[in-house]
Amino acid sequence: MFKRVSVILLLCLFAISSQAQNNLLLNPGFEDSVTVGWWLNAWGDAEASLSNETGTLVIFDSISAKVQVTAPGDKIEKVSLMSNPITNAPREGDLIITAYAKIDAPVYATLPFKLSLKCLSSSGERKWYGGSEETLKSGVKKFTFIISPDPNYRDTIYVRLSCGLKNGTYIFDDVVFAEYVDNPPPEPDGRRLREIVADNYPDGNVFIGGATQSGYWDTDSEIILNREFGYITPANDFKQTYIHPEPEVFRWDLPDLWVEKAQKNNQVIRMHSPISPQCSKWAKDDSRTPQELLQNLEEYVTAVCQRYNDYENVVWMDVVNETIDKTTGAWFGPKSGTDKWENPWTIIGFDTLGTLPDTMIVPHYIVRAFELANQYGPNIKQIINQHGTMNDAAWDRVKKLVVFLRAEGLRVDGIGFQGHMNVGWEKEVNDSGVNNITALGNLIDWAHTHDLDFHITENNVYLRDGNEGKWEEQAATFKAVVKMLLSKRESGLVTWNVWMIRDSDGIAANRTPVLFFEDGSAKPAYYAIQDVLEDTLSTGLNSVRLSAADFRLYDNYPNPFNPTTTIEYSIPRSSEVTLKVYDLLGREVNVLVDGRQNAGLHKVVFNAGNLASGVYIYKIEAGKFADHKKFILIK
């Protein structure tokens, strides 16, 4: 583990939504070479070197630039990393640098830090532009630096990143300097998902959310996340692998910023913070003893709960995750080496729960994690999150685990299903031959019967293996899942969370698994979710539901009528709608609707008191959809 004083600086593209995609630096990142495009300045007695760095000090990309500063005594004045000259900056308009800086392992209480630009005119005259000097303490600090240099001083520009006055090792990564352009991602038609949930599900038993990670802050993905969702999951930023990579080492910067951001955006959080296979290489190392692993577990769970227990917007936490092999139903355990997907925590040992003949052998890490979460996180709802399929082998063990933990006096508040699935999942069957959607409904029923919340925690629908580009089929799978979930809302709390925001996000981006295209525009899958949420005709489990899945024009009632009748139609997304009445000669006799309407079911009462008896036609046009029906007026 790197233990020297370290400052990690990430300067990233402010967003597709916030600036143009032309990169104004000659060498924006350090992935190719740290010696091309950057050089060092040192003042006083400072001695500094610039080199590649990999491993724990790199936030997003695999390689960063490491500036190591050493000098005798305390006579260091400043060390700066300077860019090569930029000669293609636009003559007008704002320029932007966005940065995150932190002290990774501080020896000193604070370090000074500053961003600045040196701007030259054609005659060589210079002007300096920069933000105020910031004092860095523990935790990430965000810098947004928007400047508009004098047009006469844009012939040559240098970016300078300065941190000085102390010996130390500073890390710089993904430096981008670009033209600022206010160009937010396009908003979909209809209402925003968080608005629909607030209006249509005021009882607080439905939460619709999204997940992303800090690597997508200040991009379209964060803008969409905040625009669409009042419930969020900060992806992997609360996991042990980040917060507590080894004993006595903690990193709270990103989690703390997530909580702060969620508070500002009026969002509730599910901490994806489990003891799980997503653990550090330190924990996976085959030399780890049961005592070392237990210490690491206890430190982490205790600290996470103590730190976030009193935040009202931190509502749920995954206590354990992926404990069971999704195919066999056996406890998931360790493998050799540190490069595989494995679960080293079973090395700690096993407990026998219950009494003969009804007993269960449970990995001790699960019991201990819940003991600590119960003790130190009493205000946070606590979840067992399970990955994989609807196979009975895995879920039967989850159910039995819940029962035995509760028998031990431990609190378990909910179960989660990681809904990573392929397109067409809703048509397939589980290992018992039961349709997946039916099995999902049965699992939700079991959870609610046992006073457990039910969470679909990481839903995405992969398009691969010849299914690329099948957007409507993908939408149908998403819709079937969410529709089943919502149908259970009256028997208990239900939540749904899409894993990642845009198709360009995450390691599975090539499978295009989510609700938004890379440019931030909504996919058919988004409108499928919007449609299901807007369809609130059912207020009870046994109510008749009229689907708004497609554009539809329904039969009027009553028919024949005198003098009034009701016409219903449904639209799956916000559309310009006209609904008109014609006689049999095609003459327009009444305009009932003419304007934009939100997705959902709509009703219009037509009064034909001024018309003579006869057969008439009512016709709808919405986007490219058109349909008509006949009705009879009898006086």
Which CATH architecture of the largest domain would you pick? Answer: Alpha-Beta Barrel
Q: How far from one another are the termini?
A: 88 Å
Please count the beta strands (DSSP E, at least 2 residues each). Answer: 31
Q: Please give the radius of gyration in angstroms.
A: 29 Å
**What is the count of helical runs?**
11
Which structural class do you get from the secondary structure elements? alpha/beta
What is the percent of helical residues? 10-25%
Shape descriptor reads flat
**CATH topology call of the largest domain:** TIM Barrel
Number of domains: 3
The CATH class of the largest domain, by name, is Alpha Beta
Give a structural overview.
It is built from eleven helices and 31 strands. The chain has three domains: 174 residues, Galactose-binding domain-like (Jelly Rolls), CATH 2.60.120; 332 residues, Glycosidases (TIM Barrel, Alpha-Beta Barrel); 82 residues, Sandwich (Immunoglobulin-like). With 635 residues, it is α/β, with parallel strands linked by helices. An eight-stranded parallel barrel has the order 14-15-16-17-20-21-23-24, surrounded by six helices. Strands 1, 3, 4, 6, 10, 12 and 13 form a seven-stranded mixed sheet that branches. Helix 10 runs parallel beside helix 11. It is flat and about 100 Å long. The N terminus is likely disordered. Helix 8 links the parallel strand 20 and strand 21.
